[in-house]
Amino acid sequence: MLNISCTYCRAPINLSDGDLAQAVHEAGDKRPKTTHVTCPSCRRTNKVPFDRVRQAYRMAGSPPPPEEEAPTVEGEAAA
Ligand SMILES: [Zn+2]
Fold this sequence. Notes:
It is a single chain. The protein is an alpha+beta fold. The protein has one domain. It contains two helices and four strands. The chain has helices at 17-27, 50-59; strands at residues 2-5, 12-15, 34-38, 45-49. The strands form two sheets. A two-stranded antiparallel ribbon has the order 1-2. The chain has a two-stranded antiparallel ribbon with strand order 3-4. Helix 1 (17-27) packs across helix 2 (50-59). It starts with a strand and ends in a 20-residue tail after the last helix. Residues 6, 8-9, 11, 39, 41-42, 44 line the site of zinc ion.
């Protein structure tokens, strides 16, 4: 779990362990600087340092990524 605040509207954004797993899994060996998170309140894209995501993921025990569940990370959230 990683809690951040939206850069634009200050709304809290909670990334579940599954979201973190998805982001880390999708990044693979690319080691991106940031990952994109869509604010549930204003729908704008926040850039979150990937190190924070990875650190939170490790603290969560590095769970496997969810199968076929719409993530809130990396956009494309189903409507
Ligand atoms: Zn926002």
